[in-house]
Amino acid sequence: MFTFRAPTLLSLTLTSTTASPTYPKTRPHCSACNNTNKMPIQAKIGPSILNADLANLAAESQKLLDNGADYLHLDVMDGEFVPNLTFGHPMVKCLRNHIKEAFFETHMMVQNPEQWITPMADAGVNLYTFHVEPVKDVCNVTRQIQEAGMKVGLAIKPGTPVNVIEKYIDVADLVLVMTVEPGFGGQSFMGDMMPKVEWLRTNYPNLDIEVDGGVGPKTIDCCAKAGANWIVSGTAVVGAADQREVISELRNVVKGYLN
Predict the structure, then answer these.
(1) Which terminus has fewer CB within 10 Å in the chain: N or C?
(2) Is 214 labeled as ligand-binding?
(3) Domain segments of the chain as ranges
(4) Pair 126, 74: CB distance under 8 Å
(5) Which residues are catalytic?
(6) What is the dihedral of CA 199, 203, 206, 212, to 10 degrees?
(7) How is the beta sheet containing 104-109 ordered, strand by strand?
(8) 0.70 cut: is pTM over it?
(9) 256 annotated ligand-binding residue
């Protein structure tokens, strides 16, 4: 049985933002579909390859996996939802052709996530995480993702209150709380996003909660203490002299708060 250590007051000096989480008093859920097969949560470390050398993406990705990464976090940007472009399903499919067994999560920072469900499923994606902000019918999108054979992740930007996704959490396999503004790597960690994570963990003890943005050895304790168990780390892992050591450190800190 999962036992969560209650969060304590954070004493770190961290980047501030004007966003403040909103905490709903009730827990409605989407009736269109329901995900009830929740397993006890585990610590998972997923390096973001946003800062990797795309010319050697397969080799760099395999190196991360060999050094202990649990999954690969693939950032997909369309230049519309966020002011940057990365890669699409052809690149993901190419990577899958070289890396057969790894767990792929695509973080869909796109204006129309519904458009890319089938292409990403065909490319071999396991977890399709999309931002709810531009979506009118979240349950319809989650249903299509499930029908395509992928797991569902719901993502929220720093300025999006947690109650926006409250009624959809029961249909999700994971919730991603952004700790930077999406679109660029190498930003400073927003510690004031942790109340969102704390609220999610308190109300959904078996939910996989992911954090992404500025996460590394200096900020992992803050994330783990709040209740995050899926950790996306880009520069801190990809650019590390000893990737295995950093991945192991991140995982051990999270495990320390799960036990």
Answers:
(1) N
(2) yes
(3) 44-258
(4) no
(5) 75, 212
(6) -20
(7) 44-47, 230-233, 208-212, 174-178, 151-156, 127-131, 104-109, 72-77
(8) yes
(9) no
